[in-house]
Structures are given as C-alpha cells and as structure tokens.
Amino acid sequence: MAFKLSDIDDTQAPLLDHLVELRTRLVRCVLALAVGFAVCLYFADPILGFLVQPLKGAFPDGEGQLIFTKLYEVFFVELKVALFAGFFVSFPIIANQLWAFVAPGLYAKEKKAFLPFLIATPILFAAGASLAYFVVMPTAFRWFLGFEGSAGGLEIEALPTAGDYLGLVMQFILAFGISFLLPVLLLLLNRAGIVTRAQLAGARRYVIVGVVAVAAVVTPPDPGSQLILAVPLLILFEGSLLLMRWQERGAPQKDNAEEATATEDQTDGTEAVAEEATQPKTES
Known about the structure:
With 284 residues, the protein is an all-alpha fold. The protein contains ten helices and two strands, in the order H-H-H-H-H-E-E-H-H-H-H-H. A hairpin with a 2-residue loop joins strand 1 (149-151) and strand 2. Helix 4 runs parallel beside helix 6 and helix 7 (182-191) runs parallel beside helix 10 (223-278). It is flat and about 70 Å long. The relative contact order is 0.08.
C-alpha cells in the first residue's frame, strides 16, 4: 500500500476540544520525559563517564581528575546528566505528540513539505553534537590544559569541578547541535516566502560576519572551537543555497505538470459533456 497523507481534517471541533487534546499531548510528553529521566538517572554514572572521555583523553595518561567543592555538587550533576540525556531519549515521542497535534490542521501538500524538515532536524542536531564531542571538545580541552605550568614559583594545575565541566559540555553540545539546524531554518523561511535565495546570496558577506559572531558567543573563548563551528556553518549555509536553487528549478516543472494535468482533466470533462449532448435522446 502506498504511503498517503490525508488532507486537512474536516471536523470542526470546538476550541475546548482542542485545548483538551493539547493537554493530553503535553501530559504524554511530560510522562515520556519523566520515564526517560528515570531510566537515565539509573545509568547516570555510565553516562557521566561517557561525557568525561574528551577531558580524560586531553590529560596525560594516568593524570587528571574531576573534583567537587560542594557536598551536594555531584548529586545535582547526576540529576542534570539524567535530565539532559532523558530529553534526547524521549525526543522522538515528544516530536510525535507535537506532530500529531499539529498535523490535522495541515493540508496534505503542507504535510509533505514539512515532513523532510521534521526528519532532518534530529539528524542535523546529532551531527552537530557528534562534531562537538569527537572533534571540538578534545581539541579545546587540550588547548585549555596547555596553560598548566608554573608562575612565580607556584604550580598552575587544572582541577576542573564536576559541575563546571558538565556545564561546559552541555554548552558545546547544545551550541553545535542547534547551530547545525541553520539549513532547516533557512529552507523553512524560503518555503514560507519570507526570504529568497537571491536575498540570502546577496547578504552572504553579512551572513559570514554573523556566523563568526555567533561562533564567538556560543563557544568558549578559544579560536580553535570558534573556527571549527564557523566553517561547518558556512558550508551548511552554502548547501542551503544549493538546495534552494534545486527547488526553484524543480518548481516550474512541477507547476507545468500540474497545469497540464488540470487542462487535460478539463478537456476530458468538456468532451464528455459534448458527447452526452450529441447523443440522441430516447423517447419514453
């Protein structure tokens, strides 16, 4: 059976029914997040161990440690780790519930246009987070640890706290993951008719400045991290322009095909009416 998207829901449910449905969807989202949080809290130590690997690799073998200066710090770190991981685990369910609430109000054509962006969002976010974890964080941490040494006869040693380190890791992952959603934002704006490819191409120099500024703000103050974020963002921007050009080339062909189909249907209908009118009527 071919995959088919139904058109807009013809039912005219009152506002109260929509609010009740929204409440139900939100409750399901919260329950999914709670279950994901509980599961990830049970595995908080292995998840934290996974997150500290970039820092461990940046230290020399057998050296390096995470400390905590408050008695409750590690407890809250594990809670944050569980909540952070639980959101990613439950995101498919949350996205499905939001889509189920919005989809009945969309035409089939709008659903087909929106679905690719819904699928591309987690993929691009995961790509950005993977770049941050496997490339950016090890590079940045080695650069930070390069400031160890001595000054004025005193040793300067890195003793990162667990809370500060987790905050830095979350900043890296969220910054790169959200930044990699740039193509989704640009293509949605283009589909909505808010911006055109020509406008974006004409503003390329301003986009470059904006990307460099964003990379400087959302990443730690080391040039390596800023460069590693700025370059992929510029590549994604140029890739978005190429996709827009491809869509613009395909749009006239699609419109011509739809117009030809509509003309053919109209011609067939006219011929059918003419044929019916020319047939002799039988007397009763």
